[in-house]
Amino acid sequence: EMGDSHMGLQARLMSQALRKLTGVIKRSNTLVIFINQIRMKIGVMFGSPETTTGGNALKFYASVRLDIRRIGAIKKGDEVLGNETRVKVVKNKVAPPFKQAEFDILYGEGISYEGELITLGVKEGFVDKSGAWYAYNGEKIGQGKDKSRNYLKEHPEIAAEIDAKIREKLLPEIDAADSNAEAELEEV
User: Fold this and answer.
1) How far apart are CA 109 and CA 127, in angstroms?
2) Where residue 120 sits, what CATH number does that domain have?
3) 70-88: per-residue pLDDT in tens?
4) What's the CA gap between 123 and 146, in Å, rounded?
5) How far is CA 98 from CA 88, 120, 176, in A?
6) Residue 68 and residue 48 in contact, taking contact as beta carbons nearer than 8 Å
7) CA pair distance 83, 119, nearest whole angstrom
8) Does the residue 30 lie in any domain?
9) Looking at the predicted structure, is the pLDDT value of residue 120 above 80?
């Protein structure tokens, strides 16, 4: 049959390569990113039928594994401007696992900073959403997320205000006494 002689060859190669590379990667303090695809396992009754190619070695050696999926399209009329994306942390050896994030990726721009401000602003109560309208401090900033995003691009001072409020609420300040204590612990 086609491919019988190469059954499991990719998995063996990945395992050998990762064994040889891990020491070098650690010593050189290097970040390595692998991008893989999902295949469907046949005949799975329980659990997820999805699997990644190349055997199990990559799953074991990885410090962080992310499941990145497109959950929708961002459109303006019939034109597709980008994707709504969901990222799930499948494995994490360096921080708490199983977190999830959603954000917009716009073609030619990348992750939308203004879109994130709108989403977090609504979630934290700084931006009001009624129907399709978004408002900040009682002033309407746009009908629909696309127009609101453009408004924040044109008015960076308002975007900076929303950003500052979100950071103040979500990122607690570290006191000077706490940072001195942390510095002393690091020296020990």
Assistant:
1) 23
2) 3.30.250.10
3) 999 998 889 999 999 999 9
4) 17
5) 6, 20, 32
6) no
7) 15
8) no
9) yes
Name the 3-class secondary structure at 180: helix
What percentage of the chain reaches a pLDDT higher than 90?
64
Residue 50, token pair as written in the block: 């999805």
Residue 177: is its pLDDT beyond 80? no
Tally of domains in the chain: 1
Residue 123's domain comprises 112-188
Cα–Cα distance measured from residue 137 to residue 76, given in angstroms and rounded to the nearest whole number: 27
Contact between 85 and 69 under an 8 Å Cβ cutoff? The reply is: yes
Looking at residue 182, what is its pLDDT?
A: 55
Q: 0.90 cut: is pTM over it? A: no
Q: How far apart are CA 71 and CA 57, in angstroms?
A: 29
